[in-house]
Amino acid sequence: MRYSNLKLEIEKCKPKTILEIGTWDGVHSCEMISSAQKFNKDIVYFGFDVFEKISEEVRRKELHVKDIQRESTIKARLEKSGAVIHLHVGYTNETLPSFTPDTPIDFAYIDGGHSLETIQNDWEHVEKLIHDDTVVIFDDYYNKDETKGCYSLIQSLKKNERYSVEILDPEDRFPNGLNIRFVKLCRK
């Protein structure tokens, strides 16, 4: 499963700070925090999600088919980790522009909305927060699908001489023909 890459990449970069766009149920959040705590006791986690504020219109636009989660439930789950938790509730086109962490972001995982506009917005704001050693993981790389996910963005970033871009294995394959991979991005 592609999610195994989260733990592998965290073990490589040993982050003190994690930024996740698309916290959803907090399961992957907890896994990332736990992996990072093997190397650093004091982990700071920044999570962005709409949680129960998502509208039906946005669910359709962003291809959100999962159950809706309550922010209070997820916050309680994440706080059990012992990390410093900062949840930002709302649409990232509203919450990310004003986000100014007081510590550098070492690891960013972008898995929020699936529309081209939302992924572009998320990347433009995350890009301002990364440093030379930051690892950025994108989910929702649908091979050669330019209509949704991060494929189009990744193709443009591959041409950018400032970044190293790697399409990661494994690829998750679904009966409906949807195949999804992670992409790793770092500064060169």
Short description:
The chain is of the alpha/beta class. 32% of the residues lie in helices and 28% in strands.
List keywords for this structure.
188 residues; alpha/beta; Rossmann fold; 8-stranded mixed sheet; 7 helices
Structure description:
This protein is of the alpha/beta class. It has a single domain, classed as Vaccinia Virus protein VP39 (Rossmann fold). 32% of the residues lie in helices and 28% in strands. Strands 1, 2, 3, 4, 5, 6, 7 and 8 form an eight-stranded mixed beta sheet that branches. Helix 6 links the parallel strand 4 and strand 5. It is globular and about 40 Å long. The model has no long low-confidence stretch (mean pLDDT 93).
CATH architecture: 3-Layer(aba) Sandwich
Instruction: Report the uncertain regions.
Output: none
Radius of gyration: 15 Å
Considering DSSP H and I runs of 4 or more, what fraction of the residues is helical?
A: 25-40%
What's the assembly state of these chains? single chain
Q: H/E order of the elements?
A: HEHEHHEHEHEHEEE
Distance between the termini: 27 Å
CATH H level, superfamily name: Vaccinia Virus protein VP39
Class from secondary-structure proportions: alpha/beta
CATH topology (level 3) name: Rossmann fold
Name of the top-level CATH class: Alpha Beta
Shape: globular
**Helical segment count:** 7
**How would you sum up the major sheet?**
8 strands, mixed
> Mean pLDDT score, rounded?
93
How many domains, as an integer?
Answer: 1
Q: How many DSSP E strands? A: 8
Approximately what portion of the residues adopt beta-strand conformation?
A: 25-35%
